[in-house]
Amino acid sequence: MSEATNVTVTVITRQGCHLCEAAEADVARICGELGVEWTTTDVDGDPELRAEYGDYVPVILIDGAQHGYWRVEEDRFRAALAR
User: Fold this and answer.
1) Which Gene3D superfamilies match (predicted)?
2) Best CA proximity match to 59, nearest among 8, 16, 2, 19
């Protein structure tokens, strides 16, 4: 199994966001291939997240740190998960 299994991936999303749906599909595919668990969090369900990320969803967090937003850069995302 991949060493990346110890990594925490969270996608911060918003209902009705087409970019969020695309990012979730990409993250699901990539994490599935690498054996990495991931979750989603709705930005509108947390005032602090909404204040920080409201205009940038989807946002991808790896181990709680912002990795990227709006689109998944697959090569960069895979490299970050392999560390």
Assistant:
1) Glutaredoxin
2) 19
CA distances from 13 to 21, 23, 70, 71, 83 (A): 8, 9, 10, 12, 25
- Mean pLDDT on 27-44: 96
Say how many C-beta atoms besides its own lie within 10 A of residue 65's C-beta. 9
Q: Kindly list the domain boundaries of the chain, sorted by start residue.
A: 3-82
Average of per-residue pLDDT across 66-83: 95
Q: What is the pTM of this model?
A: 0.90
Q: Which CATH number is associated with domain 3-82?
A: 3.40.30.10
Q: What angle do CA 34, 3, 67 make, to 5 degrees?
A: 70
Are 49 and 10 contacting, i.e. CB atoms less than 8 angstroms apart?
no
Identify the sign of the CA torsion 69, 63, 37, 10: negative
